[in-house]
Design goal:
Elements (H helix, E strand, L loop, with lengths): L8 E2 L5 E5 L3 E6 L2 E6 L5 E5 L2 E5 L5 H23 L1 E8 L4 E4 L4 E5 L6 E4 L5 E3 L10 E6 L2 H14 L9 E4 L16
Antiparallel strand pairs: 1-6, 2-3, 3-4, 5-6, 7-12, 7-13, 8-9, 9-10, 11-12
């Protein structure tokens, strides 16, 4: 058995799950609702506040899908109950982020132009107040783990952290690999 796939997904209070026709699992919670289509070979059962997954054989294809769908549904349950949060930090002189309303973010990242990004409606952005001497931060929240990670990666790609001064957009707590700069030539 798959070590991940055999674990049942327990539903916290306030979260409901139902199995729709076509092997679709739908999860509702305080932060929204999500659904995931599960491969027809994997059997899904919902009983006494737990979602269980079973596979028909031990073929490599069935073994890999067993753990995959259990993990996807577990991420949905955690997302609708708690939400996923990603914190990013803008390191650099004059680097700023502002919300223009209507789910649009505007970045000043040292280019000759401002960068605007339309966020998906499922993702919310918070920009905490910047204290003097600190770098601006951006907090992204969503119930969809994959989507919030994709948006965070897109924002990071606007100005990746460089290895000499560490300037760029990085995740809070991310350890950057730093390089030593050039040294003066000895004569």
């Amino acid at each position: 058995m798959s070590r991940i796939g055999k674990l049942p997904v327990s539903l916290p209070t306030g979260v409901t799950a139902e199995l729709l026709p076509g092997n679709v699992v739908k999860v509702k919670g305080p932060h929204g609702e999500m659904s995931q289509k599960v491969d027809p070979d994997i059997t899904v059962s919902i009983e006494d506040n737990q979602i269980k997954f079973a596979r028909p054989t031990d073929q490599p294809r069935h073994r890999s899908m067993h753990g995959l769908y259990r993990a996807l549904v577990h991420n949905m349950v955690v997302g609708v109950s708690e939400q996923f949060t990603i914190r990013q930090e803008l390191v650099g002189v004059g680097y700023r982020v502002a919300s223009l309303g209507n789910n649009i973010l505007q970045f000043s990242l040292g280019y000759s132009h401002e960068i605007q990004l339309q966020l998906p409606k499922e993702v919310t952005a918070e920009i905490p107040e910047v204290k003097k001497g600190e770098n601006p931060k951006l907090v992204l929240k969503s119930c969809d783990k994959q989507l919030v990670g994709q948006v965070a990666a897109k924002i990071r790609s606007f100005r990746k952290p460089e290895p000499y001064k560490g300037k760029g957009i990085k995740f809070v707590g991310e350890q950057l690999r730093r390089k030593a700069g050039k040294t003066a030539a000895a004569k």
